[in-house]
Write a structure and sequence with these properties.
Strand content of chain B: 15-25%
Helix content of chain B: 40-55%
Strand order of the largest sheet of chain B: 2-3-4-1-5-6
Radius of gyration of chain B: 15 Å
CATH superfamily of chain B: P-loop containing nucleotide triphosphate hydrolases
Oligomer: heterodimer
CATH superfamily of chain A: P-loop containing nucleotide triphosphate hydrolases
Order of helices and strands of chain A: EHEHEEHHEHEE
Number of strands of chain A: 7
CATH topology of chain B: Rossmann fold
Radius of gyration of chain A: 16 Å
Number of helices of chain A: 5
CATH architecture of chain B: 3-Layer(aba) Sandwich
CATH class of chain A: Alpha Beta
Chain lengths: ~180, ~140
C-alpha cells in the first residue's frame, strides 16, 4: 500500500540533512530506495563527486534516477511501494529557471515559463506521492542573506512554502540536529 | 512591540496579514511611521537602514530615529524584520556595514519586544514572549 507521506527537510550546506534524509528512507524499509538526483555536473570534479556518490549508494542498495530537469520523466520509472528521496529542490530550480541561458533565453526571462514548470512540478510530486510509500524532499537554506538573485530566491521561497504546507512533517537541519517545525 | 522575524520570501507578511485586525493595519514599507498610528506594521527596515547609511547617517542617530518611531507607536505595533545576516561576508563595504548595523539593531529590538515570532516557510515559532495571536486578539478589541 502506498503510504503517501511527504517529509520536507531543509538546512545549510554540510548540516547533515542528506544523511538524515537517507536514514529516513532506509528506515521506511520500502521495497526499493530511490535516489532522485537533480544535481548536474558542470566540471570534472563535480562529475567525479556525483559518480562516487552514485556508487556508494548502489552498494547500500539504492536505485539512482538522475533527473536534473523534467522531473515528470522519472515518474514512469517508479513502482508502487518505493521510498523516494528527492535531492534537491535548489539544484532543480537552478536547472529549470536558467534552462536556455546558453542561447540567451533563460526560462527566468520568459513570461509564464517558470509558472508552467512549477505547475508540472506540483503535479509530479503528487504523482510520486500517489505511488510511493514515502517521499522525502531535501532543500537548502539560502534566504538568510542579501537578495543576490531575486527571481531564484522568490521562486524558492514560494516552492518551500508550498512544500511545507503539503508535507506531513517539516524539519529544519542545523549542525546535525533536525528541528521539527511541523 | 511585536517582532515577526525570518529569512526573505518565508511568508512573514502573509503571516502578519492573517493575524486578527492586521489586514486593515497601516503598513510602512521601507520607512518609519512618523505619527502615532494605532496598529502600525513596519516592514522592510533593512531598506530604510540601507538608505540612512547611504545618506551618511551615523549609527547612533539611526538608532535614535528607530527608538522615536517605537515610542510613538506604543503599545500595539508589529515590526517585520528580515534576516540577512547568515550569508557570506559581502565584498561591498556598504553591505558589510549594513549587516553590522542591522545585526546590532535587531539585537536591541529583540530585547525590547514583548514577543518575537520566527517564520520558517509559513510556520510560526515563538522565540520570546506570550503567544502573538493571543496578545493581538486582546489588544485588537
Amino acid at each position: 500500500m502506498a503510504g503517501n507521506k511527504m517529509i520536507f527537510i531543509s538546512g545549510g550546506v554540510r548540516s547533515g540533512k542528506s544523511a538524515w534524509a537517507e536514514n529516513k528512507i532506509l528506515h521506511a524499509k520500502a521495497r526499493r530506495s530511490i535516489y532522485l538526483a537533480s544535481g548536474r555536473a558542470y566540471d570534472n570534479e563535480m562529475a567525479q563527486r556525483i559518480e562516487r556518490h552514485r556508487q556508494d549508494r548502489f552498494y547500500d542498495g539504492w536505485t539512482t534516477i538522475e533527473q536534473p530537469i523534467h522531473l515528470e520523466e522519472a515518474l514512469p520509472r517508479l513502482k508502487t511501494g518505493d521510498a523516494v528521496l528527492w535531492d534537491c529542490v535548489t539544484t532543480w530550480l537552478a536547472n529549470e529557471l536558467y534552462a536556455g541561458w546558453e542561447t540567451g533565453t533563460p526560462c527566468a526571462a520568459q513570461p509564464g515559463c517558470m509558472e508552467k514548470k512549477w505547475a508540472a512540478l506540483q503535479e509530479t510530486l503528487h504523482g510520486i506521492r500517489a505511488v510511493s510509500e514515502l517521499l522525502v524532499v531535501v532543500s537548502n537554506e539560502v534566504m538568510d542573506d542579501f537578495i543576490r538573485d531575486e527571481p531564484y530566491q522568490r521562486w524558492l521561497g514560494r516552492i518551500h512554502l508550498w512544500l511545507v504546507a503539503e508535507s506531513e512533517e517539516a524539519f529544519e537541519m542545523e549542525n546535525g540536529f533536525a528541528y521539527k517545525r511541523k | 512591540m511585536h517582532i515577526v522575524f525570518g529569512g526573505a520570501f518565508n511568508g512573514k507578511r502573509q503571516f502578519v496579514r492573517g493575524l486578527p485586525g492586521c489586514r486593515e493595519a497601516a503598513w510602512f514599507e521601507g520607512e518609519l511611521p512618523r505619527d502615532s498610528i494605532p496598529g502600525a506594521v513596519v516592514a522592510g527596515l533593512e531598506l530604510w537602514v540601507k538608505r540612512q547609511l547611504e545618506n551618511g547617517t551615523d549609527e547612533r542617530e539611526l538608532n535614535r530615529l528607530v527608538q522615536d518611531a517605537i515610542a510613538h507607536q506604543r503599545p500595539r505595533q508589529i515590526w517585520i524584520l528580515t534576516d540577512i545576516n547568515r550569508g557570506i561576508v559581502p565584498a561591498d563595504p556598504l553591505e558589510r556595514e549594513l549587516r553590522d548595523v542591522l545585526g546590532r539593531l535587531y539585537q536591541q529590538l529583540f530585547l525590547q519586544a514583548a514577543s518575537v515570532t520566527r517564520i520558517w516557510y509559513g510556520i510560526p515559532e515563538t522565540l520570546k514572549g506570550a503567544d502573538l495571536h493571543e496578545n493581538l486578539h486582546k489588544n485588537g478589541r
